[in-house]
């Protein structure tokens, strides 16, 4: 009381100082960071933190990366930590896997995951299976990262989602970030993990800014692999998605809210191991489920979620069948209007929600 009395007796200036200090204690302002810069920060911090970490791939060094994800890293760390490679994915992926077996922690960048098909033997037969086949004696701590999924105007050979492809394989962890927080926290966790991790970024998200709190900006911040995040709580229907489609789900939820429909939006973050528990708990609450993904429908991520729900306790809480919103079951066309009709749009999610709730 004495302190307060002296404060207010001190006049207007003392009160003003008190209020200013209280305001600054209320929490620091969030920083706007693009997904590209979040990935760059994650690699920068981990290369600095652990001398075993290094980056290799096509044009990652002197050119700063095809998408500028590695901007400034070669100048800062030099040739031994950031290495340009020839255009041969099977070659530099094999070098990276061998380095991981020898005790280093490589980050292997594919200019696009479509090109990882050139190196799939190294990713699956060498990286994913070695720990098991060595009886647990040999770890392969490696991150395969790069853009995944549909881009814009690059046609069929450069526009497919590999989440289901790699999520199918035991021995791999498969990560699919949406925003800057996911990108930074999950990449740091992936680099520190002792298992091979396939890290699926989205080219169309690289330049999108998101607010990062002071906690996320910390060098100690990581996002646990295998844990989904509820981006928007809701009570009537669950929307489950990953990567860029999470943003579409949030947009759809905002539109539907104006019509009195309350959606819960779950950002999967990790494809394998899948956080089925969070999805089940949400379905038990909302009694309805829609899955959204940019990949093809057959044997997709949504199909796996459907199977898990059907086989688990949440099935008994469903009031309607699960609905999947997916990419169209064709190779990606080049024409812009056809391309837009081949990947999920906000209107498709809204339609699926209304169909599930029988309010069309």
Mind sketching the topology for me?
Layout: H1 2-9, H2 12-25, E1 31-34, H3 35-49, E2 53-57, H4 73-77, E3 82-84, H5 89-101, E4 105-109, H6 120-133, E5 143-147, H7 163-167, E6 173-175, H8 180-192, E7 197-201, E8 209-212, H9 214-217, E9 229-232, E10 237-241, H10 245-257, E11 263-267, E12 270-272, H11 276-286, E13 289-292, H12 301-311, E14 323-325, H13 336-340, H14 346-357
Parallel strand pairs: 2-3, 2-4, 4-5, 5-7, 6-7, 10-11, 10-13, 13-14
Antiparallel strand pairs: 1-8, 6-12, 9-11
Helix pairs in contact: 3-8, 5-6, 10-14
Structural domain count? 2
How much of the polypeptide forms β-strand, as a percent range? Answer: 15-25%
How many DSSP H or I helices? 14
CATH superfamily of the largest domain: Thiamin diphosphate (ThDP)-binding fold, Pyr/PP domains
DSSP, total strands:
14
What general form does the structure show? globular
Domain Transketolase-like pyrimidine-binding: 33-208
Subcellular location: Mitochondrion
Pfam family, one: Transket_pyr
Keywords: Carbohydrate metabolism, Glucose metabolism, Metal-binding, Mitochondrion, Oxidoreductase, Potassium, Pyruvate, Thiamine pyrophosphate, Transit peptide
What report would you give on this structure?
The chain has helices at 2-9, 12-25, 35-49, 73-77, 89-101, 120-133, 163-167, 180-192, 214-217, 245-257, 276-286, 301-311, 336-340, 346-357; strands at residues 31-34, 53-57, 82-84, 105-109, 143-147, 173-175, 197-201, 209-212, 229-232, 237-241, 263-267, 270-272, 289-292, 323-325. The chain is of the alpha/beta class and 360 residues long. It folds into two domains: 31-217, Rossmann fold; 229-357, Rossmann fold, CATH 3.40.50. The strands form three sheets. Strands 3-2-4-5-7-6-12 form a seven-stranded mixed β-sheet, sandwiched between helices. Strands 9-11-10-13-14 form a five-stranded mixed β-sheet, sandwiched between helices. α10 (245-257) links the parallel β10 and β11 (263-267). α5 runs parallel beside α6 (120-133). The longest helix is centred in the N-terminal third of the chain and has 15 residues, at 35-49.
């Amino acid at each position: 009381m004495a302190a307060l009395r002296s404060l207010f007796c001190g006049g207007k200036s003392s009160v003003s100082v008190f209020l200013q200090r209280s305001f600054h204690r209320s929490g620091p302002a969030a920083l706007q960071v693009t997904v590209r810069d979040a990935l760059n920060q994650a690699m920068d911090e981990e290369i600095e933190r652990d001398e075993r970490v290094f980056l290799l791939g096509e044009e990652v060094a002197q050119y700063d990366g095809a998408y500028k994800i590695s901007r400034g890293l070669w100048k800062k760390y030099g040739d031994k930590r950031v290495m340009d490679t020839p255009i041969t994915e099977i070659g530099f992926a094999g070098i990276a896997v061998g380095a991981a077996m020898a005790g280093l922690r490589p980050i292997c960048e594919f200019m696009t995951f479509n090109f990882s098909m050139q190196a799939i033997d190294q990713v699956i037969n060498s990286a994913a299976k070695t720990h098991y086949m060595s009886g647990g004696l040999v770890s392969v701590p490696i991150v395969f990262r790069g853009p995944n999924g549909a881009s814009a105007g690059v046609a069929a050979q450069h526009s497919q989602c590999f989440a289901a492809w790699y999520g199918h394989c035991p021995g791999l962890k498969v990560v699919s970030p949406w925003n800057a927080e996911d990108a930074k926290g999950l990449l740091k966790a992936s680099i520190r993990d002792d298992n091979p991790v396939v890290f699926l970024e989205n080219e169309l998200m690289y330049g999108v800014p998101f607010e990062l709190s002071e906690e996320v900006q910390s060098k100690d911040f990581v996002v646990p692999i295998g844990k989904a995040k509820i981006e928007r709580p809701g009570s009537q229907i669950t929307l489950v998605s990953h990567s860029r489609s999470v943003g579409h789900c949030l947009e759809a939820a905002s539109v539907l809210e104006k019509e009195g429909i309350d959606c819960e939006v779950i950002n999967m973050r990790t494809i394998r191991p899948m956080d089925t528990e969070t999805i089940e708990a949400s379905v038990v609450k909302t009694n309805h489920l829609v899955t959204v993904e940019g990949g093809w429908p057959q044997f997709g991520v949504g199909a796996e979620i459907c199977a898990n729900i059907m086989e688990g306790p949440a099935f008994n809480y469903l009031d309607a069948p699960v609905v999947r919103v997916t990419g169209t079951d064709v190779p990606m066309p080049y024409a812009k209007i056809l391309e837009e009709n081949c990947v999920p749009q906000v209107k498709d999610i809204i339609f699926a929600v209304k169909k599930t709730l029988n309010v069309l």
